[in-house]
């Protein structure tokens, strides 16, 4: 019986140690990181677009973290400087991701600032990138007669549309593009100086 108590005590101590080291301490360290002056909070439309990004499962194919150039070629690909904790002050939960079936998106708003490109890419990725594996999201768009069209029109290349109709982006598609265009962490990284505690 005493061995059972010893086993239970050991398991509890191990779990407590792991909780403190892996959750409590990192959370306390990151709690006081201030937002860089260049980073702004998401607008309502961008926040709604971010929620759609999450619901569509984009994190399963795209990361949002540029990794250290000592270990990866992320910077050589033109994805920007390595990510720092202050880049994610307004992101909860974070969308760091682990898989890169598609490119990293933390700076996609700087790399691809063309709104129409993003709308086309969401409607049919292979229109802008013939080799793309990304699924299309046609349910975020609708066709309307050319004379009655209201809303943001998606400019399709010749031969991709319907006769007498135009493709209209839904508010959800527009918000998703707003979110993607807001992803721009190209400002210089702001790191607290050694020994100096950042303000909450």
Fold and architecture overview:
It is a single chain. 35% of the residues lie in helices and 6% in strands. The chain starts with a helix and ends in an 18-residue tail after the last helix. The protein has six helices and three strands, in the order αααααβββα. A three-stranded antiparallel beta sheet has the order 1-3-2. Helix 4 crosses helix 6. The chain has helices at residues 2-30, 44-55, 108-111, 115-123, 125-128, 171-182, and strands spanning 141-145, 152-154, 165-169. It is elongated. The model is unreliable at 193-200 (pLDDT under 50). The protein is mainly alpha-helical and 200 residues long.
Q: Which regions are unreliable across 5 or more consecutive residues at pLDDT < 50?
A: 193-200
Mean pLDDT: 88
Shape: elongated
Tell me about the biggest sheet? 3 strands, antiparallel
**Biggest sheet, strands in spatial order?**
1-3-2
How many strand elements?
3
The helix content is 25-40%
- String of helices and strands: HHHHHEEEH
What's the helix count? 6
User: Compute the gyration radius: what is it?
Assistant: 22 Å
